[in-house]
UniProtKB/TrEMBL annotation:
Keywords: Cell membrane, Membrane, Transmembrane, Transmembrane helix, Transport
Membrane topology field: Multi-pass membrane protein
Record-annotated Major facilitator superfamily (MFS) profile domain positions: 14-398
Gene3D superfamilies: MFS general substrate transporter like domains (1.20.1250.20)
InterPro entries in UniProt: MFS (IPR011701), MFS_dom (IPR020846), MFS_trans_sf (IPR036259), MFS_Transporters (IPR050171)
Native source species: Streptomyces millisiae
Protein name: MFS transporter
CDD domains noted in UniProt: MFS_MdtH_MDR_like (cd17329)
Entry annotated with the keyword Secreted: no
Transmembrane region(s): 15-38, 50-74, 81-99, 105-131, 143-161, 167-187, 220-236, 256-278, 285-301, 307-324, 345-367, 373-394
Highest taxon of source: Bacteria
Biased composition (Basic and acidic residues): 417-430
Annotated spans, Disordered: 398-430
Length: 430
């Protein structure tokens, strides 16, 4: 069964302003990738001390992805996103003023605590702004913006850090303010939270506003999140275990960096063409195939004996990444309903945030006791099992998506005259 092809002009203007804000934000993610270097080289800490401090940032993100999802439903997606960006900018601007490690650790935790809220807010805005038929392509464009920004950002960060490392903090703060200005000027939130919006307030009282408990009781959604959590643990190994493996085998950090560059170039060059190609098939089928392709890629790393072999392996699992991430995110978005969308997408984002903390423990433990080959073969087996599991449960998710779209359509038609209308492009698409 083929889906209608999505063209750039099928996506509303508000989406493209949001897309630009995402690109700017990821281009300016200067600090965290270089934070360990700063703490060990400039602050004089040991590697383990620096690791604990940076882990504080990850802990803050875990909390804020879930909290940000709740705020999206209570105060609105746009307000949550703007608050996250501006408070993150303040935290970035303050950190260089404190030199004590404890203060740095606390401020990094605060930064993570406000920064992670942007993830569910952006995903919820994309879902609300874009009609269901075009969401998969919209998420592919968003993922492309993330990778394009991530490819450019480290180059700029290296240039800035050579002058003075503290400039990275001020530069990222400035970028966050610019992104917030783009959202403020170009993105309108089509969702009216309960308790806001004049006559819409009375109408919203009659609508199920949802709760976090509702999401946590949703077995269909949670089984999907569980599967994607395991995939995320595998995915994060490319940044936490792959460099360790390669250095142990005699490769240099520069050679590992070239692999990351290869990954970024492929994602930027093939992301949009591949999205147009795979949009013709069922998302569930694309996700299962992408997971199997990822299994082949990570499995090849168990037998790599040269940089060229690693490059082939990275190229293969990059193709899997290209198909898996946009498909999975659009499935999660479509399973949510408008009044609890932030909570649903907050729980979904929590899977990846938690994986970033769990993956180093899993990868390090397996490498230490069983060896790197066992890690990569285990990751390959995990991807195949996830693909089989998600294929077996696909029908229940597709039924849920159909029900969620019908419920959202009913809510839109019942919206009172005093409420803010849904984006015109979305109304026409519906």
């Amino acid at each position: 069964m083929t889906a209608p092809r999505t063209r750039a002009r099928d996506l509303p203007t508000g989406f493209w302003w949001l897309w630009l804000a995402v690109l700017v934000t990821w281009t300016g993610r200067f600090v965290v990738p270089f934070m360990t270097l700063f703490l060990t080289r400039d602050a004089g800490l040991t590697t383990s001390q620096a690791g604990l401090i940076v882990a504080g940032y990850g802990g803050g993100v875990v909390v804020s992805t879930l909290g940000g999802g709740v705020l999206c439903d209570l105060v609105g997606r746009r307000r949550t996103l703007l608050g996250s960006m501006l408070l993150s900018a303040v935290a970035m601007g303050v950190i260089p003023s404190f030199t004590h490690p404890a203060a740095t650790a606390g401020l990094l935790f605060v930064f993570g605590l406000v920064n992670g809220a942007a993830q569910p807010a952006i995903t919820a805005l994309v879902t609300d702004l874009v009609a269901p038929a075009h969401r998969r392509t919209a998420f592919a464009y968003k993922y492309w913006a993330v990778n394009l920004g991530y490819a450019i950002g480290p180059l700029l960060a290296g240039f800035i850090a050579e002058r003075a490392f503290e400039y990275l903090f001020y530069a990222q703060a400035g970028v966050l303010v610019i992104a917030a200005a783009i959202v403020l000027g170009g993105v309108r939130d089509p969702y009216t939270p309960p308790g806001l919006g004049g006559r819409a307030r009375r109408a919203d009282r009659a609508v199920d506003t949802g709760s976090l408990g509702e999401v946590l009781r949703d077995r269909v959604f949670l089984t999907f999140v569980a599967g994607m959590f395991v995939y995320s643990v595998v995915y994060v190994q490319s940044t936490v275990s792959l460099p360790v493996t390669m250095l142990d085998e005699g490769f240099t950090s520069q050679q590992y960096g070239l692999l990351l560059t290869l990954n970024g170039v492929l994602l930027c060059a093939l992301g949009i063409p591949s999205a147009s190609l795979v949009a013709r098939w069922r998302r569930e089928a694309i996700l299962a195939v992408a997971l199997c392709v990822t299994a082949v890629g990570v499995g090849l790393q168990a037998f790599a004996t040269s940089w060229a072999w690693y490059a082939v392996a990275v190229g293969v699992w990059t193709l899997g990444e290209m198909g898996a991430h946009p498909a999975a995110q659009s499935i999660a978005a479509d399973m949510s309903h408008r009044r609890a969308r932030g909570r649903y997408l907050g729980v979904y984002a929590l899977a990846f945030s938690t994986a970033t903390m769990v993956a180093p423990l899993v990868g390090g433990g397996v490498i230490q006791y069983l060896g790197s080959a066992a890690l990569w073969l285990g990751c390959a087996a995990a991807c195949v099992l996830i693909a089989a599991f998600l294929t077996a449960t696909a029908r229940s998710r597709e039924d849920r998506v159909a029900r969620s779209e019908g419920a959202d359509g009913a809510q839109d038609t019942d919206e009172p005259d005093g409420a803010r209308p849904v984006d015109e492009t979305v109304q026409k698409a519906r």
